[in-house]
Amino acid sequence: EPEVTQTPSHQVTQMGQEVILRCVPISNHLYFYWYRQILGQKVEFLVSFYNNEISEKSEIFDDQFSVERPDGSNFTLKIRSTKLEDSAMYFCASSEQGQNTGELFFGEGSRLTVL
Amino acid sequence: GEDVEQSLFLSVREGDSSVINCTYTDSSSTYLYWYKQEPGAGLQLLTYIFSNMDMKQDQRLTVLLNKKDKHLSLRIADTQTGDSAIYFCAESITGGSYIPTFGRGTSLIVHP
Question: How close, in Å, is residue B33 to chain A by CA atoms?
Fold first, then answer.
């Protein structure tokens, strides 16, 4: 069964360092998303991406964040200068065009720990 | 703005029914969802209900929607140890994107 895959599963970084989280969405999906969940808190929407551009973003997704689809398969989230409060589980998701039920398919998540 | 609230933990005995509750704030919610996250896995859509429905049943799962109170519940009949997971309530509103807003998840612990 097709699935969304994310790497790395866990990354530890120093404050101020750049981090890139990678995702491979399901191959025939056209909408891509990043969410994050700080420990004990809600799963928060960060950004959605369609047709090689950001379609929506939340207040969390400030200038420190960027997304890219560098080739036909990968979808990346970059955090330019990490802060302690960026420590969270980051989930990538994808959905199929035309799905108006909003069903998202999630990866297993990348745990980011900022020291 | 959209907000979804749910309790953090629920513990039940194997074979009993589990009821996980959720409240939401946006009255224009179109779809309401239950996602399940098993250990080490991503969130997976379990079921959803359209806002013009009151109830949806799918095998052991029953979803009840009270639009007046903005209350959504998920009932799992004959709960099994394999049902132990985190259950996320989510809503999306009409507007084209249908991007779900999630709660923080309810950890369901099923003990023998």
Answer: 9
> Which amino acid, residue B5?
E
Q: Which residues contact B52 (CB under 8 A, 6 or more apart)?
A: none
Shortest Cα distance, chain B CAs vs residue A82, angstroms: 23
Phi, psi of A100 (to 5 degrees): -95, 10
Please check whether residue B95 is in contact with residue B31, taking contact to mean a CB–CB distance below 8 angstroms.
no
Joined together, the tokens standing for residue B4 give 């979804």
| DSSP 8-class letter at B83 | G
Coil/strand/helix, residue B109: strand
Contact across the interface for B103 and A42, Cβ inside 8 Å: yes
Q: B100 at the A interface (CB within 8 A)?
A: yes
Q: How many CA atoms lie within 13 A of B108 on its CB side?
A: 27
Task: Say if residue B59's pLDDT is above 80.
Answer: yes
pLDDT tier at B102 (50, 70, 90 boundaries)?
A: very high
Answer whether A26's CB lies under 8 Å from A92's CB.
no
Contact B42, A4 (CB under 8 A): yes
Name the residue with higher pLDDT: A70 or A46.
A46
Residues in chain B: 112
